[in-house]
Amino acid sequence: MAAMAVQHPSPSPSPHGRELLDRIVDAWQRAEHDADDGEFLRLLADDAVLLVVGLAQADLHGRRAVAAWQREQAANALHERDVPVKRVYGWASVLDDVARESRVTGRIYGYRGGGRRVRYRLRRLFELREGRVARLTVWPDLDALGEQLA
């Protein structure tokens, strides 16, 4: 008896190609560097959600709330450079892993900076819907920040 070949359907292509995912993450990084509130608002879905892992803060809901959080981050830490570590692509998402270099002039993730420079890992999961960021999950390396700023 001959074995029958099982045909599996080809997976459907992602609704967001890798090029679009890269464009969104790159635009987000430029907006962080330039403290461009308008660009954050453009990139975020109306019902966007922000979750910061490791902090006792409630999730933020809505484009304006998430953009305001980003504006506060930019006001407290001058984003100098991101050194790419890895990007992992999902169905409609991308995990961006970088080594971030910043000068902390105010408070960032609960630590007072006093103008000191820091370098820490920052992982962010961008989940997209219709070409906009619908959910952003942020994992800052709080241990590295604590060692440099405590």
Textual characterization of the structure:
With about 150 residues, the protein is of the alpha+beta class. The chain has one domain: Nuclear Transport Factor 2, Chain: A (Roll). The chain is about 30% helix and about 40% strand. Strands 2-1-8-7-4-3 form a 6-stranded mixed β-sheet. Strands 5-6 form a two-stranded antiparallel sheet. A hairpin with a 2-residue loop joins strand 5 (about 105-110) and strand 6. Helix 1 runs antiparallel to helix 2. Mean pLDDT is about 90; it is low at about 5-10.
Give a short overview:
By secondary structure, the protein is of the alpha+beta class. It is built from 4 helices and 8 strands.
Notable characteristics:
alpha+beta; Nuclear Transport Factor 2, Chain: A; two-stranded antiparallel sheet; 8 strands
Topology:
Layout: H1 18-34, H2 37-43, E1 44-52, E2 60-61, H3 63-76, E3 77-89, E4 93-104, E5 107-108, E6 111-112, E7 116-129, E8 132-140, H4 142-149
Radius of gyration: 18 Å
Distance between the termini: 72 Å
Largest sheet: 6 strands, mixed
Number of domains: 1
